[in-house]
């Protein structure tokens, strides 16, 4: 029978005393405690920015370096603007997709909502000659689409992937029906739509401003408000959230409605850029890019984890990659292969880091 | 030692020497020694975080030790996955078994080994019934029952059957009784005796002292990942074991003086729904009311009904003299009720979020201006409860998933105490928690009662119910089977009531 030494675990000196009672603290050393006092400044910076974000920044730097060496055109201001405007639309969808994913769900109908609202905004504008009505109408339709998604999921008890897969088809069909499958209206002469598509503020294209505003709003809501906290809570443990008094149905429906609204803004931007309402071209495949960006950015597909900063970095990476491949002359079909590969790689890395066992169908 | 592994002459079925395991900078085990002898039960004790689970995971092949050696029947073995452990005749019974919902008990038991029984369903069922009968479980579980219909106790039985049908030489139980009612515990102990007579070596992890003295031949104690010692059961005492585990005295436990009683806070008048029926119950301010009963008696369901998770279909819930309609948890929170559910990790905690987030979950609005969370106020709130409840965590920013079970439970308590509740419902508040944290939780309950909070404690551990309660309701079959004041309550009386009209699942 031996009384073993227990002093070989370094005793931490964190200022906030976990235990005030000397009796208790001497009897049991704090559990799960790590070394805090010997963290290097480098590690501190790394942990503040996040390993995920640093990997993304390094990846962006690598891609930029490689493409810049191959084609010096890459660094020209016009090309950077091309990249910026190209990522604005997918960026919007990626930002809201991140919120949906943190909530523990998924919305694959965002591309179809963007298409439907693109057509609708152009048609309302043509009918009323009012850009404001066109935008408002589009946003209202987007919110309604989100409401439909949310209600199917909450009240129909349909898995979010299946529910929004169904509405992906249905919303696309509605867009084709009302537009007869063709581009609709002409917004290329309206000053507001022209401003959206080609205007600048402080030298930065309006499109990018829209993304910045939405991303900052989303970031602030997620990070600093009760709403954001509750979104993380619902995604992290929905039973605990319900027992904690959170009306989780309201959050699910609300998040889908916001997603619809932002998808509608993306739809309006599509209309502005092409000068007419596009039922399909311009929006098809955006859901894949949005989900890829969110996953690459570190949003856990199980919910409860993720951040807008990571998603934006991932959107930039994807934008640079697409632009670079075009510049170097890579066949566009390969870009799809690259997209798909990236999504798989992002999720695989996520799952491996979570230490999940490689058995059966992942939860 | 042993010359022929096929015919072991060595009574030591398993010997683990110098087992060391690190997780990054955290040393989970250092130089642990364990001997399991054929036909003997070796209890493994220690507070949470002492390294019992890690040791079991090493035995099961889930982890590989960084150092040390496992010797089975005199031959060193290396397990790279659980299949290796099984092939070596070693089975670890999971505490929370995976049960396939859509297939029967028989298929669940023989999952992975269906080939050994043949793919004939009738043969499989016959074999299953034989095995259930052989081990004494034929009365509590049917071979045809679907996985989804099983109670936690029955799921545990399926997990045990999975092990014994393969006739292993060594079986390790990890707190097998934590989800069992007293009836099933009796069956389990009989099974363990039977395994002993068949020469099987048994390791038995438990926090329950009484169980260990009933079952074990030897007791190995771990503390902070280190081996403290092994004792023969007849050469030691409760007090010595507790000292070995924590270096503290038994006298600290169950320290409760009844508080002066105030007005009635909770009154249930004939409350019923699909789980419970005709429940009449009162709890007064400053009172600790225990709810005892066998597993499946409807205790947790009653708690969830009061907490608004299940709807009341008959009768009424009266809080402080006012009949309240509680349709969802938010309603019960508004009425001043806090609820710590039995399944801490699954139903209460945000494991990936910080202590601060978890503590403030319900009162987030109170530490916010409009919709903006005031981080400083929130941290101060969390710190207040970390200090008051002695939550052992490096800081309020630590992820709750990294804390031990006892400290996680305290975080759940902190969340509800922050709401300043009139009534606190605690479902198995000390389940899976080490003795040290247990006594601290009892102290918290006692303190709350003295502050005038009405407390309801559901517990399957009779000494706990007896120690902590002023008054005890015993439930059976979804009803109140009886009520006992503290002075009249004994384990025997509670059991008699609990088993009164008990129809086992």
Mean pLDDT across residues of chain B: 87
Whole-angstrom Rg of chain B: 24 Å
| Shape assignment of chain A | globular
> What value does the average pLDDT of chain A take?
85
How many E strands of chain B? 22
Largest sheet of chain B: 6 strands, mixed
Oligomer: heterodimer
Succession of helices and strands of chain A: HHHHHHHHEEHHHHHHH
Q: From the alpha-carbon coordinates, what is the Rg of chain A to the nearest angstrom? A: 24 Å
* Strand numbers in spatial order across the main sheet of chain A: 1-2
Top-tier CATH class of the largest domain in chain B = Alpha Beta
Total DSSP helices of chain B:
18
Helix-strand makeup class of chain A: mainly alpha
What's the arrangement of secondary structure elements?
The complex is a heterodimer of chains A (363) and B (505).
Chain A lengths: L21 H6 L13 H9 L1 H20 L6 H26 L7 H19 L2 H25 L4 H20 L11 H8 L1 E2 L2 E2 H19 L1 H11 L1 H6 L4 H27 L11 H11 L11 H21 L3 H22 L10
Antiparallel strand pairs in A: 1-2
Helix pairs in contact in A: 3-14, 4-9, 4-12, 4-13, 4-14, 5-6, 5-7, 5-12, 6-7, 6-12, 8-12, 9-10, 13-14, 13-15
Chain B lengths: L11 E12 L2 E12 L3 E5 L6 H8 L7 E6 L2 E3 L4 H6 L2 E4 L11 H5 L4 H4 L3 H14 L17 H13 L5 E5 L7 H16 L3 E5 L3 H7 L2 E6 L2 E7 L5 H9 L17 E9 L6 E6 L3 E6 L5 H8 L7 E6 L2 E3 L4 H6 L2 E4 L3 H4 L7 H6 L7 E2 L2 E2 L1 H14 L16 H13 L5 E5 L7 H16 L3 E5 L3 H7 L2 E6 L2 E7 L5 H8 L7
Parallel strand pairs in B: 3-8, 3-9, 6-7, 7-8, 13-20, 13-21, 16-19, 19-20
Antiparallel strand pairs in B: 1-2, 1-4, 4-5, 9-10, 11-12, 11-14, 14-15, 17-18, 21-22
């Amino acid at each position: 029978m031996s009384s073993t030494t227990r002093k070989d675990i370094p005793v931490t000196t964190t200022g906030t005393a976990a235990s005030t009672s000397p009796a208790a603290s001497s009897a049991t050393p704090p559990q799960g405690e790590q070394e805090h006092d010997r963290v290097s400044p480098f590690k501190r910076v790394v942990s503040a920015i996040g390993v995920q974000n640093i990997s993304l920044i390094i990846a962006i730097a690598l891609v930029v370096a490689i493409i810049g060496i191959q084609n010096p055109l890459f660094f020209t201001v016009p090309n950077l603007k091309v990249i910026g405007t190209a990522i604005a639309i997918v960026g919007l969808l990626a930002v809201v997709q991140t919120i949906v994913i943190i909530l523990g769900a998924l919305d694959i109908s965002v591309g179809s909502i963007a298409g439907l609202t693109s057509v609708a905004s152009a048609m309302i504008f043509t009918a009323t000659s009012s850009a404001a009505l066109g935008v408002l109408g589009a946003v209202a339709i987007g919110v309604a689409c989100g409401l439909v998604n949310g209600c199917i999921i909450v009240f129909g008890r349909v898995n979010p992937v299946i529910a929004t897969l169904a509405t992906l088809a249905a919303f696309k069909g509605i867009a084709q029906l009302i537009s007869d499958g063709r581009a609709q209206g002409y917004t290329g002469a309206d000053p507001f739509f022209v401003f959206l598509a080609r205007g600048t503020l402080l030298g930065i294209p309006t499109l990018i401003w829209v993304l910045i505003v939405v991303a900052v709003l989303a970031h602030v809501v997620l990070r600093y408000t009760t709403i954001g906290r509750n979104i993380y809570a619902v995604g992290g443990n929905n039973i605990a959230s319900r027992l904690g008094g959170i009306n989780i149905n309201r959050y699910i429906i609300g998040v889908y409605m916001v997603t619809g609204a932002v998808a509608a803004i993306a739809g309006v931007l599509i209309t502005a850029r092409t000068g007419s309402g596009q039922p399909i071209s311009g929006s098809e495949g955006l859901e894949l890019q949005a989900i890829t960006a969110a996953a690459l950015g570190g949003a856990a597909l199980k919910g409860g984890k993720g951040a807008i900063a990571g998603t934006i970095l991932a959107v930039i990476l994807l934008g640079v990659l697409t632009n670079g491949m075009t510049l170097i002359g890579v066949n566009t079909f390969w870009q799809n292969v690259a997209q798909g590969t990236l999504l798989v790689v992002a999720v695989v890395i996520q799952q491996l880091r979570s230490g999940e066992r490689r058995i059966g169908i992942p939860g | 030692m042993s010359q022929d592994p096929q015919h072991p002459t060595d009574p030591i079925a398993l010997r683990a020497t110098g087992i060391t395991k690190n997780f990054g900078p955290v040393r989970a085990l250092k130089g642990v020694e364990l001997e399991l002898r054929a036909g003997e039960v070796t209890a493994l004790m220690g507070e949470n975080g002492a390294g019992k689970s890690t040791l079991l995971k090493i035995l099961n092949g889930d982890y590989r030790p960084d150092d040390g050696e496992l010797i089975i029947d005199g031959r060193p073995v290396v397990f790279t996955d659980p299949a290796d452990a099984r092939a070596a005749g070693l089975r670890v019974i999971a505490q929370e078994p995976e049960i396939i919902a859509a297939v029967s008990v028989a298929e669940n038991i023989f999952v992975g080994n269906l080939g050994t029984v043949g793919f004939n369903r009738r043969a499989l069922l016959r074999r299953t019934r034989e095995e259930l009968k052989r081990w004494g479980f034929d009365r509590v579980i049917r071979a045809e029952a679907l996985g989804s219909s099983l109670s936690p106790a029955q799921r545990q039985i399926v997990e045990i059957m999975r092990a014994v049908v393969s006739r292993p030489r060594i079986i390790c139980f990890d707190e097998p009784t934590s989800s069992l009612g007293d009836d099933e515990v009796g069956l389990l102990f009989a099974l363990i005796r039977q395994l002993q007579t068949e020469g099987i070596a048994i390791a038995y992890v438990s926090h329950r002292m009484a169980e260990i003295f009933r079952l074990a031949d030897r007791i190995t104690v771990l503390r902070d990942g280190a081996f403290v010692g092994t004792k023969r059961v007849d050469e030691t005492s409760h007090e010595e074991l507790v000292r070995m585990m924590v270096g503290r005295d038994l006298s600290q436990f169950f320290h409760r003086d009844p508080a002066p009683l105030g007005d009635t806070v909770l009154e249930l008048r004939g409350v019923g729904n699909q789980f419970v029926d005709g429940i009449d119950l009162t709890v007064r301010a400053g009172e600790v009311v225990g709810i005892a009963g066998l597993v499946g008696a409807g205790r947790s369901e009653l708690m969830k009904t009061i907490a608004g998770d299940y709807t009341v279909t008959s009768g009424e819930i009266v809080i402080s003299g006012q009949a309240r309609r509680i349709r969802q948890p938010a309603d019960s929170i508004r009425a001043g009720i806090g609820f710590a559910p039995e399944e801490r990790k699954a139903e209460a905690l945000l494991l990936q979020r910080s202590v601060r987030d978890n503590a403030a979950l319900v009162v987030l609005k109170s530490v916010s201006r409009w919709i903006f969370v005031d981080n400083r106020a929130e941290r101060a709130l969390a710190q207040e409860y970390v200090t008051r409840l002695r939550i052992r965590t490096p800081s309020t920013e630590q992820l709750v998933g990294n804390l031990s079970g006892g400290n996680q439970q305290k975080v759940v308590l902190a969340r509800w105490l922050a709401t300043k509740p009139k009534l606190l419902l605690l479902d198995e508040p000390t389940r899976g928690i080490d003795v040290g944290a247990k006594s601290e939780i009892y102290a918290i309950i006692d303190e709350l009662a003295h502050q005038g909070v009405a407390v309801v404690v559901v517990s399957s551990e009779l000494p706990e119910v007896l120690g902590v309660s002023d008054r005890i309701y015993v439930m059976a079959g979804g009803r109140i089977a009886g009520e006992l004041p503290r002075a009249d309550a004994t384990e025997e009386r509670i059991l008699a009531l609990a088993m009164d009209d008990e129809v086992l699942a």
